Each structure stands twice: as structure tokens, then as C-alpha cells.
């Protein structure tokens, strides 16, 4: 793809990049241009690594805890939770689904709060809150109590992922973003593996202190989350301005590289909250195509998150073995997410690294649906299909978040847009938690069929988004930067956000 221009405008810390002419620093003051040149090469990479070490691991750990706490209901189910609570019919599906109702509703409000409150305070509050709710799950006595806890859990977790995505997107140029998002989103894949391992170990405590094993799963994992949330204010970084581990010169370098890549506006014009901006953000066509793409992640992801232990058990394995066999699929999904994110950033191209995993997911759903009529005779291929599905699912959301987030400006629009993308994208989770029906197992025609149809729809959306962005970038090149700057002031250009004639879309 030769029509993609952002690389000319971005500062890169890659080893062998030769800057195109004219210089990307031509619009900077002589002092700032000299500063940027002094940070080319290893010196600049060293600053980026300092950010990586302090930001990404913390977000990864918290996201891992979030996914363990929302998904461990599936592990608790096969340890006897449904029988002890007297769940009947589709009550388990309802309990799984109800989590996503407050989760979807409160994602945008939470990101609005995040823009006004320090991330270290707001995110830590959310972590402690959902940890307390998770601990309470260990004490529920009936279906109503479980529903109440799942609603509160969804409310508490709602703000974390969109907030984390926005925070990470605020620290890196556009083509350094996906591999960072993939690293902490990979934690959600590993959470599935770790959740199975923890459930296997904790469930051995069944009967200790007269408490059932599935209750210990909630009690222990909730207590760990509360403890993590209490220390997070000391580990979550708020902004470069507040980072004592950065020198003033390094802070200026970070600010300039974000300006050069279009992540941060030169002026604050147009970068303020307003209901008008919120309305325009919610009807942005790029976000709506991203939402369709996000459904291809959320539908099968939610379905497998809450039913994988049961699906594997129906292959003929005992409960303990089924818990352990959830580990390899999630591990492979995490590795896949990281590799795809790394190469997407390296090639500065999102499209093929989204349609590729979608193709893998289509193949996996085809295998599972095609062979599920004879489970006993196809245990190996069926399990391979489960592994393959996770390898297709987990690279999707980091890629979609990076692709849409890269094409939203200014920062207020990116904050609300990412929250809206993830909130509406999670509507697919409402579908995913209700399509794998116990009465249809082990064939699950509704589950596999619905997932397959949505993935195909997402493939079409990806093609439409790529071709439209490519066409608009081509039109942008019709006018030179000199002509644009003659016609518009910097304040006017910043106020236009991603509609600025100097804003080139990431393909």
C-alpha cells in the first residue's frame, strides 16, 4: 500500500528508518527540531522502553485479573455451582449475560470521568470495587444473589478496558500502538489459561472450613484482586508531566513525537468535551464499521469464555482434565495476539492483520461445526479447532482498537470513540453468552452458526473500511501541505481533528 503517508510525519525509533524529505521536523522550532534529532536511534528507544516497562505490564496484570474475575463463573459451574444454587433452564446463560448490560452502558461515562480524574486513582478504585464484588460471589445462596453480583461486577469492570486502551494510545505514536495493546490484551488470553489452572488447584479445597470448592474460587480470586487494587495507585502512571522518572527533556521529546504522529494536537483547540462532540463521535462511520469488526471478537470470545470448560468436558474428559485442557487454547491465543500486533506495527498496516485472524476463525468454526456431529470419533480435531479459534479471536480486539483509535482525533474524541467502540462491540457478548445452549450440546448449531455468520460480516466491514480510508488518503494528497497551511491556521487544523486535510488515515 503506497498511499499511506503517516510514516513521513512520524518520529520513529526503528533502527534502519531513513527520514523522507522534506524533514518531518520542518514545522518545529529550531530548538525542538534539534531535540528530536538528538533522540534519533538508541537514545529515543531507551525512553520508549522506560514507558513500556512502567505502563504495559501494569495494564496487563489488571486486565488479566479482570478477565479471570468475569470468566471464572464457567470454571465454578463445572465444579457444581449450578447444582448448589439450584439453577435451572437458561439461568446460567442469564447470569453470564447480565454482566454485559451495565458493562456496556457505563463504558463511555467512565472514560469521561477518566479524562477528568487521575488514572491512578480512578482505575484503582474500579479494581478494588470489582474485587469486593467478586469476593461476595463466594457467598451467594441463590440465582437472585448471583444476578445482583454479576450486575455490580459489570458496573465495576466497565471502565477498565476502554480506559486502559485510551491511556496506552496516549503514550505512543500510531504505528507503535498495536503491539502494546496486544501485550496487555494477551493477558486476557492467558487469564483463560490461568483461570483453568487456578480453578483446578483451588477446587481441591472443596470442603475446607465447610466451604464448597467453587466458592473458594470466588473468595480467593476476589481477595487477590482487592489486594492488587490497593497498591495500584503507586504503579499506574498518570501522564508524562507527572512522571518523576522522566527528565524535562524526555518529557518534551515524548510530547513532540506524539504531535508529529498526530496523536496529540499542537494546540488545545477543539479538544474539549461537549455533547456535540459526543454526538458526532457516536455516529462516526469509522467507529460503526469498527463495531461490526468488534462483534467478530466479542461473540465467539464470550461464548468460549463461559462455555469452553463445558465444551471440552463433552469431548469425553473428566472435570479436572477439562479444567487443565482450557490452558493450551488460551496460551496459543495470547501468543497469536502478540505476534500479530508486532508485525502489524512493523509493517504499519492494520488491514491484513485483522482479515488474517478472521480467516483463521472461519476455518476453526468450520472444523468445530463440521465435526461436532461425531464428537467421540473426532476428539483430536475438535480440540485442535478450539485451539485454532482462540488463535483467531485474540489478535482481533487489539488490532481493531488500534485501527479505529489511530483514526480518531483529537484526544477527547479518541477517548469517547474508543469507549463507544468497545461498548457497542460488547453487544456481541450479549449474543455470545446465549448461543451455546446446553440442550444443543455437543453439536451447538446455533453457537457455531451464529459465530460464523458474524465473522463473515466482519470480513466485509474490514474491506469497506480499508478501501474507504485508502480512497480518502488519496484525495488528501491532491493538496500539498504548503497549500493547506496557507489556507488554514494551526488552530483551525487542530479544531478539525481527524477531518483535517493534514490528517492521514492509518490503513
TrEMBL record:
Pfam families: MFS_1 (PF07690). This is MFS general substrate transporter. Coiled coil: none annotated. InterPro entries: MFS, MFS_dom, MFS_trans_sf. The lineage of its organism: Eukaryota, Fungi, Dikarya, Ascomycota, Pezizomycotina. It comes from Aaosphaeria arxii CBS 175.79. It comes from the Eukaryota. SUPFAM superfamilies: MFS general substrate transporter (SSF103473). Residues 1-17 have a biased composition (Basic and acidic residues).
Amino acid at each position: 500500500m503506497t498511499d499511506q503517508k503517516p510514516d513521513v510525519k512520524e518520529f520513529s525509533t526503528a533502527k534502519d528508518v531513513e527520514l523522507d524529505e522534506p524533514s518531518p521536523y520542518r514545522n518545529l522550532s529550531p530548538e525542538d527540531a534539534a531535540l528530536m534529532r538528538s533522540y534519533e536511534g538508541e537514545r529515543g528507544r531507551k525512553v520508549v522502553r522506560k514507558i513500556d516497562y512502567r505502563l504495559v505490564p501494569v495494564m496487563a496484570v489488571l486486565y488479566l485479573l479482570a478477565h479471570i474475575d468475569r470468566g471464572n463463573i464457567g470454571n465454578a459451574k463445572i465444579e457444581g455451582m449450578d447444582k448448589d444454587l439450584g439453577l435451572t433452564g437458561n439461568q446460567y446463560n442469564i447470569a453470564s449475560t447480565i454482566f454485559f448490560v451495565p458493562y456496556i452502558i457505563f463504558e463511555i461515562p467512565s472514560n469521561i470521568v477518566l479524562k477528568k480524574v487521575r488514572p491512578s486513582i480512578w482505575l484503582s478504585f474500579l479494581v478494588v470495587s470489582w474485587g469486593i464484588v467478586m469476593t461476595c460471589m463466594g457467598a451467594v445462596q441463590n440465582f437472585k444473589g448471583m444476578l445482583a453480583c454479576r450486575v455490580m461486577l459489570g458496573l465495576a469492570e466497565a471502565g477498565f478496558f476502554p480506559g486502559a486502551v485510551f491511556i496506552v494510545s496516549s503514550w505512543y505514536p500510531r504505528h507503535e500502538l498495536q503491539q502494546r495493546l496486544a501485550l496487555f490484551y494477551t493477558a486476557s488470553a492467558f487469564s483463560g489459561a490461568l483461570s483453568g489452572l487456578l480453578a483446578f488447584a483451588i477446587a481441591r479445597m472443596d470442603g475446607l472450613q465447610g466451604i464448597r470448592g467453587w466458592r473458594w474460587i470466588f473468595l480467593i480470586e476476589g481477595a487477590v484482586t482487592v489486594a492488587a487494587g490497593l497498591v495500584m495507585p503507586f504503579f499506574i502512571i498518570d501522564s508524562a508531566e507527572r512522571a518523576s522518572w522522566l527528565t524535562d527533556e524526555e518529557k518534551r521529546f515524548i510530547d513532540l513525537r506524539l504531535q508529529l504522529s498526530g496523536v496529540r494536537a499542537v494546540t488545545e483547540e477543539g479538544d474539549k468535551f461537549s455533547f456535540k462532540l459526543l454526538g458526532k463521535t457516536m455516529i462516526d462511520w469509522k467507529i460503526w464499521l469498527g463495531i461490526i469488526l468488534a462483534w467478530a471478537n466479542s461473540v465467539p470470545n464470550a461464548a468460549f469464555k463461559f462455555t469452553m470448560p463445558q465444551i471440552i468436558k463433552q469431548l469425553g474428559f473428566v472435570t479436572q482434565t477439562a479444567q487443565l485442557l482450557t490452558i493450551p487454547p488460551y496460551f496459543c491465543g495470547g501468543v497469536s495476539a502478540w505476534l500479530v500486533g508486532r508485525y502489524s506495527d512493523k509493517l504499519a498496516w492494520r488491514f491484513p492483520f485483522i482479515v488474517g485472524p478472521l480467516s483463521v476463525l472461519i476455518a476453526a468454526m468450520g472444523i468445530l461445526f463440521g465435526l461436532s456431529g461425531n464428537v467421540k470419533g473426532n476428539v483430536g480435531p475438535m480440540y485442535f479447532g478450539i485451539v485454532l479459534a482462540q488463535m483467531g479471536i485474540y489478535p482481533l480486539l487489539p488490532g481493531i482498537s488500534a485501527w479505529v483509535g489511530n483514526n480518531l482525533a483529537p484526544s477527547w474524541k479518541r477517548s469517547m470513540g474508543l469507549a463507544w467502540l468497545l461498548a457497542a462491540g460488547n453487544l456481541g457478548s450479549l449474543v455470545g453468552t446465549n448461543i451455546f445452549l446446553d440442550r444443543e450440546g455437543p453439536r451447538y448449531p446455533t453457537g457455531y452458526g451464529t459465530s460464523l455468520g458474524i465473522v463473515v460480516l466482519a470480513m466485509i466491514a474490514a474491506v469497506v473500511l480499508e478501501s474507504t480510508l485508502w480512497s480518502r488518503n488519496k484525495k488528501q494528497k491532491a493538496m500539498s501541505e504548503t497549500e493547506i497551511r496557507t489556507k488554514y491556521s494551526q488552530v483551525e487544523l487542530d479544531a478539525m481533528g481527524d477531518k483535517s486535510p493534514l490528517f492521514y488515515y492509518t490503513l
